[in-house]
Specification:
7% of the residues lie in helices and 55% in strands. It is globular. It is mainly beta. The termini are far apart. A 4-stranded antiparallel sheet has the order 1-2-3-4, with no helix packed on it. The chain has a 4-stranded antiparallel sheet with strand order 5-6-7-8, with no helix packed on it. It has a 4-stranded antiparallel sheet with strand order 9-10-11-12, with no helix packed on it. A hairpin with a 2-residue loop joins β10 and β11.
């Protein structure tokens, strides 16, 4: 039984998961918002928001930073950001507010940090003075070929819901609007 125990222990140790710690990047801070985009070929992409700047850092398999790209097209202050990874590209959906109007934008990028689809306006909403400004939410199909951008907000006591479906090139496929008491 001792031989079986040692063999079992060696077998489990041979298939255990390896954890690799990377050094902190020059842009990193303890309370920094980040989102792991995913793996492309042999590198990993991670979105970081640091001091009103937005970056995508590319890490190698040993979690060392290879490159860091600043996303100049993103505003310094955003209400929310969603990143959806597909096979060879990823979509960034973000919302920002200016003077009581919330804007929802989207862009598609590849693993080389090039915009495949330039940033484009997807929707706008004028809000009341005391309204919640994080109104846009994002979903996607199982194969990530379609995106759902929907908003919900209260206007004069009614709940307004608007939904738009886009393909992975940000072409609108469908749109609908609902009002609830």
């Amino acid at each position: 039984t001792l031989l079986f125990f040692v063999f079992s222990l060696l077998t489990v140790a041979g298939f255990s998961q390896q954890i690799i710690w990377g050094e902190a990047d020059e842009h990193d801070s303890p309370n920094m918002p980040y989102e792991i985009i995913g793996r492309f070929d042999s590198s990993y992409l991670i979105y970081k928001s640091v001091k009103n700047s937005n970056y995508i850092c590319i890490y190698n398999e040993d979690m060392q930073v290879i490159e860091s790209h600043e996303l100049d097209f993103l505003p310094s202050k955003m209400l929310d950001i969603d990143i959806i990874k597909n096979k060879q590209q990823f979509t960034i959906i973000w919302q920002q507010q200016k003077n009581g109007i919330v804007f929802c934008y989207g862009t598609v990028m590849n693993a080389n940090m090039q915009q495949v689809i330039p940033a484009q306006l997807l929707d706008t909403t004028r809000l009341g003075q005391f309204a919640d400004n994080k109104i846009y939410l994002t979903g996607y199909s199982e194969d990530k070929s379609k995106l759902l951008v929907y908003k919900r907000y209260v206007q004069r006591g009614d709940i307004q819901v608007m939904a738009k479906v886009y393909d992975n090139r940000l072409n609108m496929l469908d749109s609908s609007r609902f009002t609830f008491d």
